[in-house]
Amino acid sequence: MVELPRAPVYRIMKRAGAERVSEEAVDAMIEYLEEVIEDLTLKAIKAAEKAGRKTVRRDDVEFIVDILKG
Question: For residue 2, is pLDDT > 90?
């Protein structure tokens, strides 16, 4: 189920240089992004729990992104 709005994703794809973008391409991108967001969130939750918190903070997300960037 697609939850992210299509218009911002479409604009980002256009800004990245896509001359034309189909609705199906936007939907596929949204599905992928939602999976990535869910995965990062699960990892950020674990980071927050290790720090003894229930609240996921910006630094938890940045920590996970930094690890993934290598």
Answer: no
